[in-house]
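Example record for the data management plan.
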Amino acid sequence: MKEIRLAVKILKTLIKDRIQYPGRLIVDTIGVIARCGILLILYWYVFKLDNGVINGTTFIFTAWSIFFYFSFSVLRLRDISRLIMQDVQSGNIEVLFSKPISYISYRIWWQIGSGLYSFIIITILTVIALAFIIGFPPTMTINLFIPTFILTFLCGSILSLLIYAIVGFLSFWIEDINPVYWIVDKAVMILGGSYLPIALFPKFMYQIALYSPFGASQFVTHTPYQSWQTNWYQLIGIQLFWIILLSIIVYFMFKKAKKKVSVNGG
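Corresponding structural encoding:
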């Protein structure tokens, strides 16, 4: 119950703050328009030049896949790693560790709440705009789509938080985690289907995206394609596998980090 009350309080506080000061929403909206919008126009033109079909897929499937990546990125779950690093470098970690709440839960819910308002507003408006401009692919109108999309979205969110939390906890042993963060973030970006949709991946690259935690964290980009109807359970199974494994890694890293703070901090 304590964890639930903490989560609700953090989410309510941060959402109210974002409503009161919509600066983040404006920045995120400009970012989505600048990157996702231009990319969709570019791919529309490329598909048009190639008679509307590339690698067995059409523009409408690719457009929704790209949109799901950029919509998911608005949550800014990756920022948790730098927040952990800031806590360590500033010494604030010792204060937070002494509080009667779980540091990991606190940081996770803070990160979710930080981007939730922008994510909801931008996603709703962009879905309406895309539905009006290009429509929905047939794969997104079947009964299976919504429940499996929600499930893979939740699993992807948990997996993203775990991946970047591991990077963040490295700051207990590495003074500056930014080089590691950049490598991991670029791996997620490439294998998640940001600028090159997964339907256009070469076979070997698709396999890496399929079985690595970096690609698995972005499986929402797979949902518009026709293959999702037959292999959704396999992809969600891969996500669950990585969630269990990375949760164990985070648990032991957190225990060692806490011990390190106790020894060095007295």
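Summary line stored alongside the record: The radius of gyration is 20 Å.
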